[in-house]
Amino acid sequence: MFNTILVPVALDHTETLARKLEAARHLRGPEGRIIAVSVLEDIPSYVAEYAMVKPDRKKMVQEIRKAFEDALTGQDDVERVTLAGKPGVVIASYAEEIGADLIVTGASRPGSEGYALGSTASRLARRAPCSVLVIR
After folding, report:
1. What is the spatial distance between Cα 20 and Cα 8, in angstroms, rounded to a whole number?
2. Are 127 and 8 in contact (CB under 8 A)?
3. Checking DSSP bridges between strand 102-106 and strand 28-40, what pairing results, if any?
4. What share of the chain is helix, strand, coil (3-state, %, to 5)?
5. Dihedral of CA 8/14/16/18: which sign?
6. Rg of the chain over CA atoms, in angstroms?
7. How far apart are CA 78 and CA 54, in angstroms?
């Protein structure tokens, strides 16, 4: 059983969220906790420089946080954390910071970007200080 389980939530891939949470609940110890993590990625400066319309960052963050909350509606036993940066890097750092002992993440379908795992799942598998369970 695991005490602190992180579940990354990619708002453009919520189709695996229910299965990830089910696995996390099954593996959580009696006093364990599940923390859903959403990561806000910055637009690279070399791209933002050429954008015709500058995004309203405050509004964008509010919309992403609302989508995160909507994705977790009814999941009262799940804590929520929002981080900023590259998902595979900041989730691994956060896992180390809080002493997480499991990350339950999703994988891309074969043939899509990152082929077998996906870039975030691959980075987590390489960088995480704890076990990583990849849900297909």
Report:
1. 9
2. no
3. unpaired
4. 40, 25, 35
5. positive
6. 15
7. 34
DSSP character for 93?
H
Please state the pTM of the whole predicted model: 0.85
Chain centre to alpha carbon of residue 61: 16
d(CA 65, CA 121): 22
Alpha-carbon span 29 to 42, nearest angstrom? 35
- Give pLDDT tens digits for 89-136: 999 999 999 999 999 999 866 554 545 556 888 899 999 999 999 998
List the structure tokens of 58: 């405050």
Closest alpha carbon to 9 in 51, 52, 65: 65
pLDDT one-digit tens code per residue, 44-75: 666 666 666 666 778 877 888 899 999 999 99
Contact yes or no for 117/134 (Cβ under 8 A): yes
Q: Which residue has the tokens 């009262």?
A: 76
